Amino acid sequence: MTTASLKIYDGLFVSPDDESLKRKPFVEGNTYLLNGKVHKYEGKLHPVHSPILVKGTDEPTVIGNYPMMNEKDALAALDATCKAFDFGRGQWPLAKVTERIAAVERFIEGIKRKRSEIINLIMWEICKTEADATKEVDRTIMYMQDTITAYKDLENKQSTFVRQGGVMAQIRRTPIGVVMCVSPFNYPFNETYTTLIPALLMGNCVVMKLPRTGVLCHWPTFDLFADCFPAGVINILSGSGRETMPPIMKTGRVDILAFIGTSKAASSLQKAHPQPHRLRICLGLEAKNPAIVFPDADLEQAVSEVVAGSLSYNGQRCTALKILFVHKDIEQAFLDRYVAAVDKLKIGMPWEAGVKITPLPEESKPGYLQELIDDATSKGAKVINARGGKVDRTIVAPTVLFPVDASMRVYNEEQFGPLVPIRTWSRPEEVYDYLAASPYGQQASVFGQDAAKLAPMIDVLVNQVSRVNINSQCQRGPDVLPFTGRKDSAYGTLSVSDALRVFSIRSLLAAKEEGATQKVISDILAGQSSNFLRLDYLF
Length: 539
Fold this sequence. Notes:
This protein has about 550 residues and is an alpha/beta fold. α8 links the parallel β10 and β11. α3 crosses α4 (about 130-160) and α4 packs parallel to α5 (about 190-200).
């Protein structure tokens, strides 16, 4: 009998008569957004299963469905998007900046009205705690508002002329064209809008591919998109990525790929494009962020940050700490404190007060994590926390493995779950060599108090990862800071200002400084007859 068959956590799931089931949503997702209208889908629908189960049963909890769109549907979405952009002649790319801002502001107000519905869908489908689901939606609203502010600042700085060598020029950022945005399951709402909104504000038109897990939170937005934006500016696909995305890429009509997922899938999509040198990319991919704990670290602070960094949302974050390097001199002291803190984390349903560990939304993830545990323990690692290694259907108890080494899969693979591998270190070169050999390079966290010892490591780490955090966990925010990575972790940089640059190109109007031409330019400016050439200020 396997651990998973014992139903050891059955009491944590919901009873058939539980009041919480009254909040269980059901989304009849037989609709899709195409060319400015919400249509009924006549094809195959796929059920959406919540990882929240009813006590005593293995039966999935169905909370909705979505269209399994096919190649024909995908190409129809692409056609509508290309028509809306029309090589820069469409209504949206030619719109005034103020018109695009007003459309996004109307959309934001609509999201605020649907906030509670979206939070509940995130909570039930991907089992993010109610607090974290709320934070995701509220952070997304703030991100959209901050992006508008950054866009206004960008436009205002461009409302001037450059004069050099008898030539005068005005330089502005303009749209690139057709964008395909692909979002992940773990932040299905926030990660979608961190690329979608800057792409739209800059005047691009978008095909948006929804994740297969975390899909339902987008259904409340379909009518908002239809109401707030011109026809074809955004078209939405659901279903299998393998069925829908490669046919779109093979046409060569996508100008920018904004993809958050695995490096393998990203490479495949890039290769499908017949002119990859013309394809701009913005990729958020895997990571294996280490925490490096020095012997003089404040253990109380370090343990608190590392627990949160490694196990917030079950460790299902690209920014999560996914391997710990603990100095040999404090090995036992750190392990004792860390293991005790991990075993105190409350496991339960996402709406329960104080819950930190929830059921996993990916059907294959419990089995995968069990494989990693079995592989590591067969090669000498031990599960060192009391609850570690316990699996019951969609619940995997947080598990700490020690000591791990390079022969084990979990040492190198991104586990993306509540599984924490730990090893010791004595020489900084052990950390440097690990990062040098790793295919990833997103972030690292270092914990210590001695500036003389921290400084040399910081100088090396900033050349191996994109962000080093001192005495704090890895994270993306605040969103004004650049978010990127090295090697297989990312391509391109996102922040509220960087993203606007990712989805635009610098264009300019230039002329010789001579009387007749200057008069023409002055007349255009005075008559406010050009959306590009202007000197207005946006408040």
